[in-house]
Design brief:
The protein is α+β, with helices and mostly antiparallel strands. Helix content is about 30%, strand content about 25%. Strands 1-9-8-11-12-13-10 form a seven-stranded antiparallel β-sheet. A hairpin with a 3-residue loop joins strand 2 (about 105-110) and strand 3. The termini are far apart.
Amino acid sequence: MNSNHLSKIQVTTHALIGKIRKYFAISTFYRVFFSPTHISLVVLSRVLYCVLKVQEHSGNAAHVRAIRRLKHLMLRETAHWFGAALDDDRIVGGYECPKNSVPYQVSLFAGYNYCGGILLSDEWVLSAAHCKSKSDVEVRLGEHDIWEPENTEQHIMSAEFIHHPDYNPRTQDSDIMLIRLSRTATLNSFVRPVALPSKCASAGSRCLVSGWGNIRPNKLQCLDIPVLSDDTCFNSYPFQITDNMICAGFLEGGKDSCQGDSGGPLVCDGELQGVVSWGKGCALKNKPGVYTKVCNYVSWIKTTMASG
């Protein structure tokens, strides 16, 4: 790699960082909505990072040092601006999940992790309806570090998206969909379905929510949160909560799922009780996360899977 090539990469890096800074001076209000600009910047920043990572291994010693400085600059600047503007796009206040401890966790991948999902069988994945794509996406199973090969992964293309017929994109009611895989997954200790609920979760149930977020971190994050009462949920979001939604989290704020976790699992006592759906900001006081109430959809899920 010659000096002119390195200079062009440096100019491109700084130009993209400037564009990201300018865009994310405007904050995002609801975690469920994404603009095309947001998505394109996410993809561009990750693509450029990957280019820099490849170039790091192909130059002389001086160029390698320069590339590494650019790579760290890219990570530092994009992490700061994505996080500050979006109240972070990943689980807030959580911890790194023990490796492969959430074998039902799925990543919906389109150049980056744009939504989560939940493995229900060797052929079916559950997610949020607002995560539906107009084109096929890569469904990633058995992942822990989303950007590093670990010999546990299975990457399978989607074959069909089936959102619930009552899904309302304005209110996010019935925000749930099934994804049929293009081929069956191999079930093992790294890739294993979660059980559907035998009954609805009661207030106070302790649950686990997990996800990667859109931008960072690379490794799967976990958070232990309680299910809140219906009254608390309704009072947190007056006239916005339906009977098909539950709230989970802490009213004092500081811990919550977020944008990039949409479609991911809320599991209580080994059963899937919620799908990450929406909320105001992330981890804000008196604004807990809102989840699709899976126990209301067990019949639809089973019927759809059986007829598929």
